[in-house]
Amino acid sequence: MEATQQVEEGLLAGRGVVFSRVLEAVPYEGAGDKIKLPPSCFTELSDQGAFDKGPLHFRVSLIHQSSPSDLKNAEQNNRTTHAGVLEFTADDSVVGLPPHIWSNLFPADSPMVPMVEVSYVWLPKGTYAELQLVEAGFSDIPNHKAVLETSLRQHATLSEGDVLTVNHGVPTYHLRVLELKPSSSVSVLETDIEVDEIGADPTAESTNQPVLQPLVLGKSDSGVVAEGSYVYYKFQVDDDIWGKISSGEAEIDVKIESETQDGDTDLYVSRHPLLFPTQHQHGWSSHDIGSKALVLSSRDLGLGPGTYSIGIYGFKGTTKYKVSVSIRDKSKSEIGQQAISSTLSADADTVESQNCKHYIPSRSIALHEAYCRRHNIICQYTGCGVVLRRDEVKNHVHCEECGLAFQKEIIEKHKKVQHQSLDCPLRLVTCRFCGDMVQAGTSAADVRDRLRGLTQHESVCGSRTAPCDSCGRSVMLKEMDIHQVAVHQKN
């Protein structure tokens, strides 16, 4: 009687297809929720016509192996989730589980021989999902909706109670599935699903996930950073402020005042979507000993309106610090400098030195020129013009990539720290098509994509098609702008 009931339930769940196997679970590295099954499963499913009924979905249930004394805990260990299928290449009696399935079935230490039951089921298409953030900070990602959409695209199913893992560069975020419609488990293939996000549970245990603390312009914040750790802040540059900076009237002044004598920090700044600047991934940096200041102006490439992150790295010891960001008005100082310069140049008793370009009293100009040419030299690097003592010239070098001047002993550190954020193929960039943070990789293989400035990832990611908003025709994402201009005469 019980066996007959199970067959009937299997027929109902599988819409006429009955398939169930007990297999040994083996982990494999992969994204999403698609499992690997043995070839014999393909034959059994094919014989029942499962492939004619649409995408394959499976219920994956943990088989609890317990002694009689542990039977009372069996119910809480009877965990279940759902999955799609990637391929039928697993060894016989084995099922390959990606990290998403494995972590939801075995949240703690897995048993010596993890056994699971894999059953074919039919799932309705999902229409609604409510997700709760496990850690704070996911909403700080400027395009976090697109990042979540990209992650969900790797899934075939969703089940209530499951925890989704979303990677965004270095940080990893988790979202718990609280509610689904029209059922507790749904298919997310070829369907538009409405997603609601709710904030992290304030009573949940804190994690080591970095969090961006808001910093108000003109106000300081104090903190402590341990050696080898980061503390992060964020600040906003709106259109009005950027207007003053872009016109040269103002600069951004980022300051760290060290209040610990034996400790030291490094300062890293990035513009979003790079949320968490590090030694190896940042926009601007300062490595001065003790207190440090980083001045950003319209001359800095990559600067613009938007949100910025500050990373304070504990370089040595445990350091107590005070951090602030202010907008410094340059007009007053510049006006003062111009007035002084004008006075000097107009003074009939001064003459401009041909060597150092300083204004010298005319009565001593001959003596000054003789001394200056013998002891001083001007750096001939374009735009530099710094006056150096002759014994300092060898130690004064310019970076051939950005042109900034450094002492010779720290130029190599500058190149390693600063320019790997621009040139390293392992640096993280935001894909213009999926919105995710990915490794830049090498240049695109396709010549046309290289001319467009696409990275290796973007060349492949942009080959996906999407319907044109104007005509509905399927067009590759990387060709969409050309399509809009050529076909619909849009700018």
Automatic annotation (TrEMBL):
Pfam families: TRAFD1-XIAF1_ZnF, UFD1_N1, UFD1_N2, Znf_XAF1_N. This is TRAF-type domain-containing protein. Belongs to the UFD1 family. One of its GO terms (molecular function) is polyubiquitin modification-dependent protein binding. InterPro entries: TRAFD1-XIAF1_Znf, Ufd1-like, Ufd1-like_Nn, UFD1_N1, UFD1_N2, Znf_RING/FYVE/PHD, Znf_TRAF. The lineage of its organism: Eukaryota, Viridiplantae, Streptophyta, Embryophyta, Tracheophyta. The keyword Zinc-finger applies. The keyword Magnesium does not apply. A zinc finger (TRAF-type) spans 368-434. GO terms for cellular component: VCP-NPL4-UFD1 AAA ATPase complex. PANTHER family: UBIQUITIN FUSION DEGRADATION UFD1 FAMILY PROTEIN (PTHR12555:SF27), UBIQUITIN FUSION DEGRADATON PROTEIN 1 (PTHR12555). GO terms for biological process: ERAD pathway; ubiquitin-dependent protein catabolic process. Residues 368-434 form the TRAF-type domain. Keywords: Metal-binding, Ubl conjugation pathway, Zinc, Zinc-finger.
